[in-house]
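Form 7-S
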Amino acid sequence: MHHPTLAAGRWKTLTFCEQMGNIGSEISRATKAPTRERCERAVDRALELLDLTIANERGLRQRELLRVRELIADVFFGGMEYGETFESLLPFFDAFAIVAHEHGA
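Output:
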């Protein structure tokens, strides 16, 4: 586990936008990683944080988050199911980070 304090409950204290912004930070790290190993670690952290978020959601939001997880995995494992890249996913996550920042997070 990469984020033991977050998994212990701190993650739940963050707003949804803060959570998504943090996940996006890991995706950004994956895009800039100089080695496959560092990219893998960033993706692992992103998926771990996303799983913590998914565990707290229900209904449509949970379903959409599961789709985001599927997209990230597809990109990492080289699948072309959706034709996305980590770079193409960044604007999605950036929007959450901007909202979180604007609301004093």
